[in-house]
């Protein structure tokens, strides 16, 4: 992935917005930090989105005092990066088979499911000693809900942006989208 100065500045802006979203906590470290990552994913591709998501999650955990330890939050951050990759490829695949609206809707659903149950199950070996199974299960709905809201708002912003703005920050070719 070759990044020009404009794209780097845009990524920095989205990371700064992730920090702002990290201050809007819903429950513990569940916050609105991934909205800029979802938007960055849709605009710039999976690598940029993953970078924004990882840094955004670590900023949220940092402002919460790393309640589940740094190694656990690093693993969750990497999982958030993978969610951006899954969201991107879902969007691209569905857009090829259908319309952009359908692709955005399916991507939001995938983001919510990945952000809640799937990420928690993948991280469960690290989380169960701290939270126990009931604690992990109790976090599934809030994580999926807030992750889905983050992705939905990002999709609405993406859809509302003019094509000229999308083209200015895009780091992928139009044949990939």
TrEMBL record:
Pfam families: ECF_trnsprt (PF12822). The chain crosses the membrane at residues 34-58, 70-89, 101-123, 135-158. Keywords: Membrane, Transmembrane, Transmembrane helix. It comes from the Bacteria. The keyword Transmembrane helix applies. GO terms for molecular function: transmembrane transporter activity. This is ECF transporter S component. It comes from Acetobacterium wieringae. The lineage of its organism: Bacteria, Bacillati, Bacillota, Clostridia, Eubacteriales.
């Amino acid at each position: 992935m070759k990044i020009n100065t404009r794209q780097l500045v845009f990524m920095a802006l989205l990371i700064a917005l992730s920090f702002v979203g990290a201050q809007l906590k819903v429950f513990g470290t569940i916050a609105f930090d991934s909205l800029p990552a979802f938007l960055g994913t849709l605009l710039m591709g999976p690598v940029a989105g993953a970078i924004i998501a990882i840094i955004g999650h670590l900023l949220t955990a940092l402002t919460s005092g790393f309640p589940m330890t740094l190694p656990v939050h690093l693993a969750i951050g990497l999982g958030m990066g993978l969610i951006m990759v899954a969201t991107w490829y879902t969007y691209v695949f569905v857009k090829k088979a259908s319309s952009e609206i359908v692709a955005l809707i399916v991507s939001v659903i995938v983001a919510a499911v990945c952000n809640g149950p799937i990420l928690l199950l993948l991280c469960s070996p690290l989380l169960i000693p701290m939270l126990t199974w009931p604690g992990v299960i109790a976090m599934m709905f809030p994580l999926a809900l807030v992750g889905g809201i983050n992705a939905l708002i990002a999709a609405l912003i993406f859809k509302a942006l003019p094509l000229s703005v999308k083209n200015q920050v895009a780091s992928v070719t139009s044949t990939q989208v």
